[in-house]
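Hey, sorry to bother you again with one of my protein questions. I've been puzzling over a protein and I'd love to understand its fold better. Take your time with it, there's no hurry, and the full record follows here:
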Amino acid sequence: MNRFIFVLLASLSMSLVAEPHNTIIGEFSTGNLSPWESKSFDGETLYTLIEQGGQKVLKAESNASASGMFREIRIDLEKTPYLNWSWLIENSLGGINEQSKDGDDFPARVYVVVSGGVLFWRTKAINYVWSNNRVKESTWPNPFAGKNAMMMAIRTPADKPGTWLKEKRNVRTDLKNLFGKDIRYIDAVAVMTDTDNSGKHAQALYGDIFFSSE
C-alpha cells in the first residue's frame, strides 16, 4: 500500500509540472491574416502573404511610406513573457540618423504596446528594430513619441540582408528595464517596414510570431 501511494504521488507531481505554453500572434505560415488590421501613418507599405522556401511568410515593401499591421490582443506576461519571431530584410537604410525624426525609418520592426486606455499619454511601447547603424542592444527614445516609445536595436548592419534570423525576447524584463515598472500585460503587437521620413525603399519578410512560457 505504501509503495502504491508513493507511485501515485510521484505520478501526480509530474502531472502538475506546467507544460510549455504558446500564444500564437501571427500565424502567417497558414496564410491567415484575418486577426490583423492595417494602420497607415504616411502612405501605404504593401503587405502580402507570399511563398518562400516552401512556406508562407508576410512580405512588406515600403516606398517612402509608413503603414503597419497590428493585432490587438491582451497577453499575460506572467504566463508567456517571451516574444518569438523570425525576420529577413532585403536591404538596410544607410546614411540616416535613427534618433532624429528625419531618420526614424527601419527596414523591419516588431513592437509591443501597453495601452494607456483613455489616458492615452500613458501608452507605452517597445520597438524591436533591425537597425541601420546602431549598436546591437542599444536603446533610445522614439523621436516622435519620446520616452513612452523606446527603440531597441535587435539587429544591425553586421547582420547581413537576405538571411533569416530568429529572435526571442523576454518582454516583461525589457519593459521593466526600459520603463522601470513591472508590467504584466501588453495589449497589441505590430510589425512595420517604413521609409516615409527618408524617402527610401525597403523590403522585409516576417515569419510567424508567438509568445511562449519559456
Residues 2-15 form the longest helix (14 residues). Helices lie at 2-15, 171-179.
